[in-house]
Amino acid sequence: METADLFLQNLSTIERIAAFICRRNHVRDDDAAEFTAEVRLRLIENDYAIIRKFEGRSSFSTYLTTVITRLYHQYRIEQWGKWRPSAEAKRLGDKAITLERLLTRDGYTFTEAVSILTTRAGGVYTVVELESIYVRLPSRQPRPVLVNDDVSADAASTPAVAEEQLQARDRERTVRTAAQAIDRVIAALSPEDRLILRMRFWGTCKVPEIAR
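The structure assignment produced for this chain is given below.
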């Protein structure tokens, strides 16, 4: 079979795999469409060089999944630069890294990130847990998002919104300071007591569940 024919026969599979990878990584719809177009372009460039490398050691769909996953990582690095989680996110674990990635690399607001993680992750995340993680993450500037002049003008013409944002930042600083104080107190407790508090307030476990 000609390489071009193999590409065309599997075009729907290619697009389905690209869409799946985007959903798994919480990529926005417009970015997902752009990435899918990039995948199609990369697969046909240089006379279908990537497809011609397929040696039949696995199914073609498995090969495509591996290739498109690698293309996704390359695409994100090209678009955003190489993103690295903070030391505090690493200390807090995988959930903190995922939340920080949505906030700082992908440009979501905290509210948007909570919505994504609590509705698409099969109940693994809770709002209370994400709030607890958020106030312990370092304040990092999200990657820039380009807006048009109309949006900028609208934002500048709403002083009430600006005031609300200032108040929100003040509240966040207060909560972060309180969280740091609480963490210092918890650090002085026994490992068992720390585990109980984490289960109760982060995991939202009920007392009988903790006792068991």
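Interim note for the steering committee: The radius of gyration is 22 Å. Confidence is low (pLDDT under 50) at residues 142-157.
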